[in-house]
Write a structure and sequence with these properties.
By secondary structure, this protein is α+β, with helices and mostly antiparallel strands. The chain is 40% helix and 26% strand. It is built from 5 helices and 8 strands. The N and C termini lie far apart (36 Å). The model has no long low-confidence stretch (mean pLDDT 93).
Length: 163
């Protein structure tokens, strides 16, 4: 079998496996890494694209992954609310605080090189600190949605190492 034929066969098999189990399209956005992380953590794989990425013992959870040299987690596409108070409420109830545990994975090739978990309280604290300035100084008219990154030192400080 040629490398091209083998790749095509693996691609098709992965898609069909995910379809048969209700895991969604593994090639959409970062779905394959979410599914993989969920399995490494022995979590239940989420069957939805929006909302929880997986389910741990505490319920719905969020996964962030990177392939960079240092671990980090990026939260993009956060809807902008009409007031800062409503923004904080949205972050607390619908976006960040909704998931008790946030998992951060750094991939090295197909493997997870580092894996940490942070509480929603710590992620929410960092999110509010980072987003307040952006909320009041948002100049991106084409895409006004908010975003922030939790960096390596913050993950090491607030997170608990799993791997």
């Amino acid at each position: 079998m040629t490398p091209q034929e083998e790749y095509r066969k693996c691609f098709e098999k992965m898609f069909l496996l995910c379809e048969e189990n209700g895991w969604g399209d593994p090639f959409s956005y970062n779905r394959a890494r979410e599914i993989y992380t969920s399995m490494v953590l022995e979590h239940e794989v989420s069957t939805n694209f929006s909302g929880a990425d997986g389910f741990d013992d505490d319920g719905e959870c969020e996964y962030k992954s990177t392939t960079t040299k240092t671990i980090k987690g990026t939260y993009n596409g956060i809807s902008v609310q009409s007031t800062w108070e409503k923004q904080v409420e949205y972050l607390t109830n619908d976006k960040i605080g909704k998931y008790k545990n946030h998992y951060f994975a750094r991939f090295d090739g197909p493997n997870i090189a580092e894996l940490y978990v942070m509480s929603c309280e710590d992620v929410l604290k960092l999110a509010i600190e980072k987003l307040e300035y952006k909320y009041f100084n948002n100049t991106n008219k084409k895409d006004p949605r908010l975003g922030f990154t939790i960096n390596k030192s913050e993950i090491y400080q607030y997170g608990r190492k799993i791997k």
